[in-house]
Structures are given as structure tokens and as C-alpha cells.
Write a structure and sequence with these properties.
CATH architecture: Orthogonal Bundle
Largest sheet: 3 strands, antiparallel
Radius of gyration: 18 Å
Distance between the termini: 31 Å
Number of strands: 3
Shape: globular
């Protein structure tokens, strides 16, 4: 067997596993709010920007419109967002928070801290997490 083909030598497997496990860890934190992890990501973007086009949300979340549109439709049905046609360009769809979506922000504010609250502080210090984020940002930029 070629050494480079061993699972233990695959960075992609570590990234995949970490992503899957982080998403799984968020599930019990998000379910009481009626959110899935992908919906949470959309809400994060909208809490920050308040109103965006579908295209802008897709760019920020690195999602294609064929993935994003059904997600936004479900979120609108759930009452979290409002979608409207753009006035300057009717081909654009604008997305903004509904009243329910705005109220959810205060309920979600502690979620980022809840994930790491029970981690042993000495096993993964904050500065290591920050350097990981920087490294992951570099990987993302290279692969875009």
C-alpha cells in the first residue's frame, strides 16, 4: 500500500471528521431554537448584515444557489426570514430577518461559548484555536 493513501495520512479526513463532529455537537444547542446547523449559519450572516441578496449569502457561506434556495425556502416557511424581489433588479432576491428571526438572536448569543465550555482549558488553549482558525482560513482561500 502507498503510504500517502493511508487514512491516517489524510488531512481531508481530519477536516471532514472535525466538521461532522462540530455539526453534531451544535445539534442539541440549536434544536431548542428550531435551527439546524446550515440554518444557524444563515442566521449568523443575517444577524450581522440584516439584509442581503441570496447571492451575497451564498458568497459568504460558500454555498451554491441550488443548495441555498431550498434552505431559505424552509427558513421562510419556519418564519425566520422574509424573501422579497429586488426593486432595482427583479432577478435578485433579498433576504432579511423576520421579527421571529430578530428575536432569536438574543436566544442564540451564548451558543458559540457553549460548545467549548466543557473542554479542558489546558488541552486546547484559546491561542491554539485562533491559530487553527487562521490556518483553516488559509486552506479555504486556497480551495475557493
Amino acid at each position: 500500500m502507498h503510504e500517502q493513501l493511508k487514512l491516517e495520512n489524510q488531512l481531508c479526513f481530519r477536516l471532514y471528521s472535525a466538521t461532522r463532529l462540530v455539526t453534531q455537537a451544535y445539534r442539541p444547542l440549536l434544536e431548542p431554537l428550531g435551527l439546524t446547523y446550515p440554518k444557524y449559519l444563515v442566521m449568523l450572516v443575517l444577524w450581522e448584515h440584516r439584509k442581503l441578496t441570496v447571492g451575497a449569502i451564498g458568497e459568504l457561506l460558500l454555498l451554491e444557489s441550488n443548495t441555498l434556495t431550498p434552505l431559505l425556502q424552509r427558513m421562510e416557511k419556519d418564519g425566520f426570514i422574509i424573501r422579497t424581489k429586488g426593486t432595482a433588479d427583479s432577478r435578485q432576491t433579498l433576504v432579511e430577518l423576520s421579527h421571529k428571526g430578530k428575536l432569536l438572536e438574543s436566544k442564540a448569543k451564548d451558543i458559540p461559548f457553549c460548545l467549548t465550555a466543557n473542554w479542558p482549558k489546558d488541552s486546547l488553549p484559546l491561542d491554539k484555536l485562533r491559530s487553527c482558525a487562521s490556518t483553516l482560513d488559509g486552506i479555504i482561500e486556497l480551495l475557493k
